[in-house]
Amino acid sequence: MSRQDIAVAEETLDPADWDETRVLAHRMVDDAIDHLQGLRNRPLWQEMPASVRANFVSPVPQESQPLGDVYSEITVNVMPHPMGNHHPRFWMWYMGAGNFTGALGDFLAAIDGSNLGVGNTAATLVDRQVTEWIREMMGFPAGASGTLVNGGSMANIIGLMAARNAMAGVDLRQDGVASMPEPLRFYASDQVHNCHEKAMNLLGLGKGALCKVPSNDAFQMDIVKLRAMIHANRANGMRPACVIATAGTTNTGSLDDLSAIADLCRAEGIWMHVDGCVGAPIAIAPENRHLVAGLERADSVALDLHKGFHAPFDVGCALLRDRRQHRTTFAEDAEYLQKMSRGIAAAEFLHDYNLDTSRGFRALKIWMMLKEHGVGKFGRLIDQGIAQAQYLRGLIASTPALELIAPTVTAIVCFRFNPDGREEAALRALNIEIMLQMQEAGIAAVSDTTVKGRHCLRVAICNHRTRRSDLDLLVHQILKIGGDLLAIDGVARERTRTSSNLGPR
């Protein structure tokens, strides 16, 4: 039998019946709209029962099953158990609440299928336009560069890697960190996000290269102490390389004095990087943009677009003032990735500006969202969140049983239930129990933290669905749950006292 006579069963991942798939896909879209439209009427979060968890420990499927059956499993076992960050009363972490247009953008990006690392495609032009828009919104000069990444941690790493290479005094790409004549030092406040410690490790500098500058009573980096630390390090044979200013700390939402830090960095010849994952988008907020004055003077900025812009996870951006330094830090040549004057490879390769050769089409959702709503709406939403935080602060200040723990500058409020001035350990246990009971009841999600040694609850308002009535409900529930816990504790104490008074029989 000849080779041509042998029937070859060639396969594909395309549907066997496109019409049937179309019907199912339309159902998925309808269900998705119903899911978002009904958020407020469902619990924010609910614990998964053992019967649901059991579905996620089965062995790898060897045989096919209808897509409709697969989707049914999702509707039963996955969709009822989200993190809850789309819900109007999710304030646990500062992470954004998503939006439907962005979800459609992710879907269309997957259908387009372009790899944004390389290629002369419309997707590449969309990506470049989006980073140009972000540059413009943040006040960076024309000619600055930007790159989209998976989130704020990577955006910070991009900026800090460029800072390291620019300030090292040697060619680190060729000779590595062992060739540096002096150890580099980076400076950040004691409120800085821990991703910067990871960055020091990744960049081969070690956590000791990150000098923590004490913060003042407003939880800002102390400029006087920063300057003294720089001078002391330089006198001891170290090379001050970069100040990491924080625009919106994770703990309290406080903002370093960006203008003062810019002045200091210029005077000292040091790179200025801004971790703006929480606060950089305030630059587009009409009523509050003054809070981040000086951001536009930075050498690099990191921001999260799934936070202030509510893009679906995940997408962040790194901006660098010096395009040449940006590209020099990351571009590498390869014989299998040569640029052409014509054809698919006739374009600037976007992977020359970050660590990813393979990159998804993250830009499309941002492009669609900005086209649909306009930058003005996103700015007003940021102002709205800050105003809601001030509203909550007012509720707390007027409620004797609640205690504010830190100033409310942006959209993060730190406070605790403290009706009777009990000791710190007891307050911690009490507030954690309140927090967990609200989560388990699906009412609201807040987190906890410790600020200057005092444990507290933390409300991070980064949610375009939140209304002031939700904040009223939050305070009501904290007082109710806290009061119930105190009543139970009081009964237990009375029983103990009565029992001890009875004595032995």
Task: Give a brief outline of the structure.
The protein is α/β, with parallel strands linked by helices and 505 residues long.
What does this structure look like?
By secondary structure, the protein is of the alpha/beta class. It has a domain of 274 residues: Type I PLP-dependent aspartate aminotransferase-like (Major domain) (Aspartate Aminotransferase, domain 2). The protein is built from 15 helices and 11 strands. The longest helix is centred in the C-terminal third of the chain and has 35 residues.
- Cα radius of gyration in angstroms: 27 Å
Give the tally of β-strands: 11
Broad structural category = alpha/beta
Major beta sheet, strand line-up:
1-7-6-5-4-2-3
CATH topology of the domain at 103-376: Aspartate Aminotransferase, domain 2
Identify the CATH homologous superfamily of the domain at 103-376. Answer: Type I PLP-dependent aspartate aminotransferase-like (Major domain)
Strand content: 5-15%
Keywords:
505 residues, alpha/beta, Aspartate Aminotransferase, domain 2, four-stranded antiparallel sheet, 15 helices, 12% strand, globular
